[in-house]
Amino acid sequence: MRETGLIKSLRSVRLFSEREIPDAVLLDILDAGRWTGSAKNTQPWDLIVVKNRESLGALAKYGRYAGHLASATLAIALVMRGDDAPTLMDEGRLMQNLMLAAWAHGVGSCIASIYPAANEQRARELLGIPPDRHLRTVLSIGYPAGPQALRLPANAPIPRGRRPMADARST
Ligand SMILES: Cc1cc2nc3c(=O)[nH]c(=O)nc-3n(C[C@H](O)[C@H](O)[C@H](O)COP(=O)(O)O)c2cc1C
After folding, report:
1. Is the CB of residue 11 below 6 angstroms from any atom belonging to ligand 1?
2. H runs (alpha helix) in the chain
């Protein structure tokens, strides 16, 4: 695979198989996240691995499109210190690194946005997170349930694919 092949083949996976994730694989995913660069190297995150099925089911209700959390093998909650622009950038970089690291192991993932604020508060209480921390995103993790898990269903309300390279301009 060309090096960018890993990046280009990363798709959101919302259908998961029952195959267990080995501890060594999970640790490597978390370690790759740990190496994410952040503004001034503040590393403004703590990660919580959620395996308890009841907790996954509850989190799945704390976002309009968070339903895939209920059937994930496990989830990683991104607990962030702050909501300024650099911290939001750090969160995105951390999330992408976790997703790419998982995909390098053949493990699928999908972001679940936790909102509105009342749901974020419920999620904080569920996971015992102090009120001065943010929990905007949780990542579903699991091996894909076959090739169909890499495609959006035809009736999905969001567009597929990407804008064409021909849209690119240089000045
Ligand atoms: C900031 C952000 C929030 C997202 N929130 C959700 C979400 O709540 N539920 C969901 O199913 N997908 C969510 N996604 C995944 C996007 O829908 C997905 O990345 C996009 O449709 C492109 O599809 P692909 O990842 O399969 O290429 C989110 C993605 C980003 C970057």
Report:
1. yes
2. 3-9, 23-34, 53-59, 85-104, 117-127
Tell me the one-letter amino acid at 23. D
pLDDT, one tens digit per residue, over 114-155 is: 999 999 999 999 999 999 999 999 999 999 998 889 888 788
Report the CATH number of the 11-147 domain: 3.40.109.10
Q: Is the CB of 63 under 6 A from ligand 1?
A: yes
List Cα–Cα distances, 2 to 5, 9, 12, 105, 136, in angstroms. Answer: 5, 11, 20, 16, 33
* Summary count for the chain: helices (H), strands (E): 5, 4
Chain centre to alpha carbon of residue 128: 20
16: alpha, beta or left? (left if phi > 0; alpha if psi -120 to 50)? beta
> How far apart (Å, rounded) are the C-alpha atoms in residues 11 and 151?
8
> Residue 131 in contact with residue 45, Cβ under 8 Å?
no
Ligand 1 atom nearest to CA at 158: 21
Q: Where are the domains of the chain?
A: 11-147
For residue 57, pLDDT over 80 is answered with: yes
What pTM was estimated for this model as a whole? Answer: 0.96
| Residue of the CA atom closest to atom 30 of ligand 1 | 111
Instruction: Compute the distance between CA of residue 58 and CA of residue 72 in angstroms, rounded to an integer.
Output: 12
Q: Is 168 in the pocket of ligand 1 (CB under 6 A)?
A: no
